[in-house]
Amino acid sequence: MTQTTARIKKAGKHFEMIVDLEKALKFKKGEGSVSDFLEIDSIYSDSKKGFKAAEKDLEEAFGTTDVISIAEKIAKEGEILSTQDYRDEEKEKKVKQVVDYLSSNTIDPQTGNSHTAERIRNALEQVRINIKNSPIADQIPEIVEKINGILPIRLETKKIKITIPAAHTGKAYGVVASFKEKENWLDNGDLEITASVPSGDQLFSFYDKLNSVTHGSAVTEEIKED
């Protein structure tokens, strides 16, 4: 458990509360309840000095003096201060996810063998990869491109023929566009795509997204390459 401060400025005044960092961040994303993250049932004007906010200020800023209602607003609308240890821990988690993914789904094109986790991690450190706060699988092509200059590396991919019914081409095109090699619009409005999609987790994610936007109506066929 990591204790931190969540804060907001409203009606020209500062308001703070003491929270559990991870649980407050989850609540901000829509998970859990106020009772999960609120460490002390008080709203402060300065939590470090222990100065509690005046009731008239709370009423003016939030329209209530109820701590639970105010805490919910601060968590959702305000800033949750992160600690350096927490940021380092989250960064290491993301790096490990990238290393695990690349170890399992890439090869050295010069030898046909997989790279070791240590070699991949060293390459990531050398190019100073900035791993974004988005699904790891979506970032892999860009990461591979960046480290390829110092580490010969290639994603193992699956070539897939996809037929998307006319009624779903609008939404589905955004899913397949970044993977397409060829496209062919049929007379009935259907779209045929030949796509090259990285194997592993990203392939499963691709199928999930495609099935979601087409309600399972897209027809896919893996193309076997000689």
Account of the protein in words:
The protein is built from nine helices and eleven strands. The protein is elongated and about 70 Å long. Helices cover 43% and strands 23% of the residues. The strands form four sheets. Strands 9-10-8-11 form a four-stranded antiparallel β-sheet. A three-stranded antiparallel β-sheet has the order 2-1-5. By secondary structure, it is an alpha+beta fold.
How would you sum up this structure in a few lines?
It contains nine helices and eleven strands. With 226 residues, it is α+β, with helices and mostly antiparallel strands. The protein is elongated and about 70 Å long.
Descriptors:
9 helices, 226 residues, alpha+beta, three-stranded antiparallel beta sheet
Terminal CA distance: 54 Å
Helix content: 40-55%
Q: Major sheet, described briefly?
A: 4 strands, antiparallel
- C-alpha Rg (nearest Å): 24 Å
Q: How big a fraction of the residues is strand?
A: 15-25%
Give the spatial strand order of the biggest sheet.
9-10-8-11
Structural class: alpha+beta
H/E topology pattern: EEHHEEHHEHEHHEEHEEHE
